[in-house]
UniProtKB/TrEMBL annotation:
The keyword Transport applies. May form heteromers. Glutamate-gated receptor that probably acts as a non-selective cation channel. May be involved in light-signal transduction and calcium homeostasis via the regulation of calcium influx into cells. It comes from Prunus yedoensis var. nudiflora. Residues 196-544 form the Ionotropic glutamate receptor C-terminal domain. It is a multi-pass membrane protein. It holds the Pfam family Lig_chan-Glu_bd. CDD domains: GluR_Plant. This is Glutamate receptor 2.7. The lineage of its organism: Eukaryota, Viridiplantae, Streptophyta, Embryophyta, Tracheophyta. Residues 618-628, 637-648 have a biased composition (Polar residues).
Length: 690
């Protein structure tokens, strides 16, 4: 082959037919070269390949077949042309053709190219040799035989010798580019040069890119999150991509310029690519191409936070929302009214002058908030309602106590600044990371250059923020979102993040314009980000310190409880109270149905305002029917079916009555209050029909 062709094939693997070296083959090649040189004097050093040897063996096999058929005449006869005849039909055919084919199929011998044997008209596979192109020729790697497959050696009779050790201990292969490792496929660049990939030299935020000098080996170690993501993407590529990391640094090891300068080196062809925390911007994209981003986008600012927790006179109202406070108050009043309705006729604790009854109802209801109510509840409906209401109050009080304790014990942190425009109006100083493009963004939105201060490290930024603009520091620090998250992971208790205030596309890798590597590496990065490998890389480099839980905004330690959290409890209490009222009203109207029929609603209210002396509460506690020193004996009148039930307040001011079927209303006792209508008067006003 031509030297140029052979050079482009260095490292290639090939398969060729193994031709055993025999005396016959050696003599044949000598005669062949002599005869070929005489016939073709212009062609020098031409050898007969395996196809020529097989053609010679095929001719020899045909001669053997003819001898086997015999000395019969091989006359050829013309065939009868058909309707759709072709030019092949004009050829003559021998009548001994089938015999010749049969004889040829049974012919076997050892030819120049190896064993000659036909099966179903096909030459049987021979032994193949795996070769590796190196230098000006090829080297043998292994052999393949139909019997044993891949083997390392053949014996003297060209028969493969199979052994487990030989099968897996083949001759080492020299791959394209002189590599001993197996390549993934074609190589970029094709000229065999390794990619020169520039990396930034950083002092702060070295979690993304860190360049360190290894004094023991006199080499440079480049590590970091961006480096690991790039290497993970290369592992997914279907081809090998050799590269070297070259720090963008001066001889003394410091940075050689800004990130814009570093990106511009790709445009100048000083670097083949740049890997690091390079932000995608519009002006940079004019000179280079970016892969897809591998981090969050946006530029944000970090500002100090102040504690605005319990320094408020009305802080105790904060655990609950106003709608929950209002709903709770209304239910306290409502439950007090329902309990008064259920207990008024049968419970001495809920009787007395109107002002006393209103005060008792309110006191009873609101005292359940701290479970200090002392009034008895004697009706079953009242007890049923109180069981549900006490449970509601218990849940509310415990939730309020827990939330209030959380608000009092935890910090209530708020940012000192929420809008970057406020910093421009107030003339405060703003910090940015040295060599970052953020400086130009801040100048574009109106910051004076004297108000912009470059930060070198996270420690410098922390000190400047702690001082503030009044003491020569800064009020806010502006940087890309990934860097700010790293900063807050270290100082989460002092600062918070506001923004994004500028829109960017995140960090990406830089390549020359129209580089074929951009779509391939972008696709590889998609495969990496969709797997758990990216999460493992993030956990490796961005492990949060201390108890920093959330670094994305102001921390509020507790959520204010609203009505939506307790509407189910109020619904249960409301349904229970309404049900109790319906049962009570229905029972009362049923008992007083005769009076309601003849006297009307007003009489019902007057009867409701009287004591129900037939209630078990009064029957079981006769001492409550009068004062402690004025006990009244209850006895039946001999001339009447009425039961005497004299009952009065301590001032003997009101009287009770009861209607029985077929009986008149008896006269009341003396000492009646002029404001109370006697029972005889009620009977006169509302007579019963016979």
């Amino acid at each position: 082959m031509h030297s140029v062709v052979l050079n482009s094939m260095q490292g290639v693997l090939g398969v060729e037919t193994e031709v055993p070296i025999t005396m016959e083959l050696t003599n044949f090649r000598m005669k062949w070269k002599r005869q070929f040189q005489q016939d073709n004097p212009a062609i020098i050093d031409f050898d007969c390949d395996v196809f020529g040897l097989r053609a010679y063996d095929a001719t020899f096999a045909l001669a053997l077949a003819v001898e086997q058929v015999g000395n019969a005449s091989f006359d050829f006869q013309k065939r009868n042309p058909s309707f759709n005849s072709t030019d092949l039909d004009t050829f003559k055919a021998s009548q001994y053709g089938p015999k010749l084919v049969q004889a040829l199929s049974n012919t076997t011998f050892k030819g120049l190219a190896g064993e000659f044997s036909l099966k179903d008209g096909q030459l049987q596979p021979s032994t193949f040799k795996i070769v590796n192109v190196n230098g000006n020729g090829v080297s043998s790697v292994a052999f393949w035989t139909p019997e044993n497959g891949m083997v390392k050696t053949l014996n003297s009779t060209n028969i493969s010798v199979l052994s487990t050790s030989e099968k897996f201990d083949l001759i080492p292969i020299i791959w394209p580019g002189g590599l001993l490792s197996v390549p993934k496929g074609w190589e970029i660049p094709t000229n065999g040069k390794r990619l020169k990939i520039g990396v930034p030299v950083k002092v702060a935020f070295t979690e993304f890119v860190k360049v360190a000098k290894n004094l023991s080996t006199n080499t440079t170690d480049v590590t970091g999150f961006s480096i690991d993501v790039f290497k993970a993407a290369l592992e997914v590529l279907p081809y090998d991509l050799p590269f070297d990391f070259i720090p963008f640094a001066k001889p003394d090891g410091t940075s050689a310029g800004t990130y814009n300068d570093l990106v511009y080196q790709v445009y100048l062809e000083e670097f083949d690519a740049v890997v690091g925390d390079i932000t995608i911007t519009a002006n940079r994209s004019l000179y280079v191409d970016f892969t897809m981003p591998y981090t969050e986008s946006g530029v944000v600012m970090v500002v100090p936070i102040v504690d605005t927790g319990s320094k408020n006179a009305w802080f105790f109202l904060k655990p609950l929302t106003w709608d929950l406070w209002l709903t709770t108050f209304c239910f306290f009043v409502y439950i007090g009214f329902v309990i008064w309705v259920l207990e008024h006729q049968i419970n001495e604790d809920f009787r007395g002058p109107p002002s006393h009854q209103v005060g008792t109802s309110f006191w009873f209801s609101f005292s359940t908030m701290v479970f200090s109510h002392k009034e008895r509840v004697v009706s079953n409906l009242g007890r049923f309602l109180m069981i549900i209401w006490v449970f509601v109050v218990l849940v509310l009080s415990q939730s309020y106590t827990a939330n209030l304790a959380s608000l009092l014990t935890a910090e209530q942190l708020r940012p000192t600044v929420t809008d970057i425009k406020d910093l421009i109006r107030s003339g405060d100083s703003v910090g940015y990371m040295k060599n970052s493009f953020v400086r130009e963004l801040l100048k574009e939105i109106g910051f004076h250059e004297s108000k912009l201060k470059a930060m070198i490290s996270m420690e410098d930024c922390d000190q400047a923020l702690s001082k503030g603009s009044e003491k020569g520091g800064i009020t806010a620090f502006v940087n890309e979102t990934p860097n700010i998250k790293l900063f807050l992971a270290k100082y989460c208790s002092k600062y918070t993040m506001i923004g994004p205030i500028f829109k960017t596309d995140g960090f990406a890798f830089v390549f020359p314009k129209r580089s074929p590597l951009v779509p391939d590496i972008s696709q590889a990065m998609l495969n990496v980000t969709e797997r758990e490998k990216t999460m493992n890389i993030e956990n490796k480099w961005f492990s949060r310190e201390g108890n920093c839980q959330d670094v994305s905004g102001p921390r509020v330690s507790s959520n204010i409880l609203g009505l939506e959290s307790f509407w189910g409890l109020f619904l249960i209490a409301g349904v229970a109270s309404i049900l109790a009222l319906i049962i009570f009203v229905a029972s009362f109207l049923y008992k007083q149905r005769h009076i309601l029929k003849h006297a009307g609603v007003r009489a019902m209210f007057e009867i409701f305002n009287e004591k129900d002396l037939n209630s078990h509460a009064f029957k079981s506690s006769p001492q409550r029917n009068g004062s402690a020193g004025d006990q009244v004996e209850v006895k039946a009148s001999p001339n009447s079916n009425w039961t005497e039930s004299p009952f009065s307040y301590s001032n003997h001011a009101d009287k009770d009555f009861a209607f029985l079927d077929g009986q008149e209303t008896p006269s009341t006792t003396s000492h009646a209050s002029p404001d109370i209508v006697p029972t005889t008067e009620l009977a006169r006003r509302y007579p019963r029909n016979a």
